[in-house]
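Consider the tokenized backbone below.
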């Protein structure tokens, strides 16, 4: 399992309706993308849930590097780069993944575009933490696995994942929720759309 995210931080007076309209227009294009576990189209608005910025920040979990590379090099990513400028694309290795009890709940499809993946996820939380020098890595990663299971077990959880960047030694906890008050600490994003063609094929539990 591989994670990927890029952030487009926009001006403070930017009309975020432009982002919403873009996702409505193109979000369905990854609904059947080979090798994709899921893509969450995420947005933060300045002043909402404590966000200091306007930001578009999709987060991906991939089942295959081939699927990820096809997205990046095959033209799909080029369209976003042409419109907004090419962002830095962060990548992490999977540590753990669990589905929550709300993963298979029924979402309201009203207003969904044709071919859209109907998902109960409405909010996402991302928490980043450094892995300091001198700690026992096995213990840190075991704690991350445990935290993933705890988050997935909370009411309203759709899924939870832990991923790590060993270049920066950064651990990221990511979770999706059905309600606006998720039981997780971190930066809160609104979920505009979910493309999840391979969600059921994402490996569960510890990734080693």
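A designed sequence for it:
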């Amino acid at each position: 399992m591989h994670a990927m995210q890029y952030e487009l931080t926009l001006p403070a007076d930017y009309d975020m309706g432009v982002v919403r309209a873009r996702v409505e227009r193109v979000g369905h294009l990854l609904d059947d993308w080979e090798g994709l576990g899921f893509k969450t189209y995420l947005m933060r608005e300045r002043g909402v849930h404590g966000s200091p910025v306007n930001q578009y920040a999709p987060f991906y979990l991939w089942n295959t590097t081939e699927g990820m590379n096809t997205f990046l090099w095959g033209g799909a990513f080029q369209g976003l780069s042409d419109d907004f400028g090419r962002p830095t694309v962060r990548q992490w290795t999977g540590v753990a993944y669990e589905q929550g009890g709300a993963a298979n709940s029924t979402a309201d499809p009203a207003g969904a575009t044709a071919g859209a993946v109907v998902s109960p996820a409405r909010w996402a939380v991302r928490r980043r933490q450094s892995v300091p020098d001198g700690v026992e890595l096995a213990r840190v990663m075991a704690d991350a696995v445990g935290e993933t299971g705890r988050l997935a077990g909370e009411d309203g959880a759709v899924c939870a994942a832990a991923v790590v960047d060993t270049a920066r030694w950064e651990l990221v906890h990511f979770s999706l929720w059905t309600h606006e008050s998720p039981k997780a600490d971190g930066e809160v994003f609104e979920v505009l759309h979910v493309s999840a063609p391979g969600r059921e094929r994402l490996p569960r539990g510890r990734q080693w």
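The two ends are 11 Å apart (CA to CA).
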